[in-house]
Structure formats: C-alpha cells, structure tokens
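Problem: given the chain below (246 residues), write out its structure.
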Amino acid sequence: MSNISEEIMKLETNPQKSKIIAESHAFRKKMLFAIRDADMETTKKVFEKANIYLDKEDPIDILSRVEGNKLRSQKNFMLSHNSMYALMAEFGGLDPVLSHYMSEKYAILIETVDSVKELDTLHLQMIENYSSPKNRYDLVEEMPLSEKVKLYIANNFMNELSMQAIADEFYVTKEHLMRTFKKETGSTVNELIKKSRLDEAEDLLKHSRLTVTDIAIMTGFNSVQYFSTVFREIYNMTPTDYQKQC
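Solution.
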C-alpha cells in the first residue's frame, strides 16, 4: 500500500485529526480571500489564529514532513504558500510584474533564514505585503500623470527604467513627463526611482542574508558600485556596513 493510501486510512480512523485539518484549511481559505481583497487587517487576524497549526505541537504534521528537520519542513510549507499568496493577490489586482518580484524575493528570503522563529516573522511580513492595499491600483483617466507614474514605478522599480520608456507608457513626450512630474510633486522621476530602489534595498539588507551584489541586482541598480555610492549618499555608510550593523 502506498504512503498516501496509508495516510488516508489513518485520517479515516482519526476523526479528531480530520476535523483539525478541515479547520486549518478553512482558516487558509479565509486568509487567501482576504489577501485577494487587499484586506490586511483580516489577513493578519486570521494568520494569528491559523498559526496554531504551525506551533510546537504540530497538530497536522506540517513540521514533520521532512523527518528530523522542522526548519526544512516549514520552509517547504511557506514556499508553497508563497505561490498561493502571489496568485490570490494577482486575482485581486496586484500587478503581475510586482507579483513575480515579490514571489521571487520571498522564495529567496525563505531559503536564507536559519531558524523557525525567523520564518514566523518572515511569514507575517509576506502576508502583510501581499495584502497591502498600497500594492493594488487601477489607473483611471482622471488620475494626475504624476500619480500614474508613481504607481508605475512602484510596480516596476526592480526593472530597467528609462525616462523614454515611462513616457511611452503614458503616451507623452519625455520632456512633458519630466516637466509635469516636477511641477506636481516637486521632485524628479529619477529621484523617485532611486528612492523606491533604496527603500527596498534597505529592507533586504535589514531582513535578509543576501549579498550586497544580489540585493543590487534584485532592486534594479545597474552596478554594485553605483548602488554603494547612492546608498552611502543617503545613509552615510556603505551597504555592507549597514548590513553588519543590522
């Protein structure tokens, strides 16, 4: 008899465990719908309740899937859920490009973590970002050009961005884009791109063990040297020093 058949038979003879599994899946379903709807408050509340299924008692054997390795078991669990979170967020309006970036980012971060406690913290960060209303938008015709550009950059900062490409996205000239954005926001498009990349890079330096080179590439900087120069201008230290300090 296969292992799967054996597990099914065990469940059929253990109604209490079957009930717990049904409850855990109901929690997961509710949380996935909250992520889809960008309802961060509900997502976090459901996560707090559902997290009992990942506690030390391991009522549905999530942490024993890889024998003798709870950390690997939980990583596998989170990797599968990372994909589900990204998909549900996309159904709710998360830009596919940003969804891809976020799912890749968290897949990498999950693998760099070396304790169950850190995974719990990362899991909460994942669901917060996937369910954040800030990451969802609908471009409407009445929206000022600067707001459209801000949203576009927020969803594409990790890619190579040129002024001409952004201008083409909104069917305006490069000169009109630069002039209008400066007038409406007081800053330049390039300044916003730089800030968006630096904010993400700082988060990765603080919460991951990725190398400075990997972080520079992930966040859209075209070279490690340029990343270090720009980072030092704002934080008065190199990315490496900041990472060590954190």
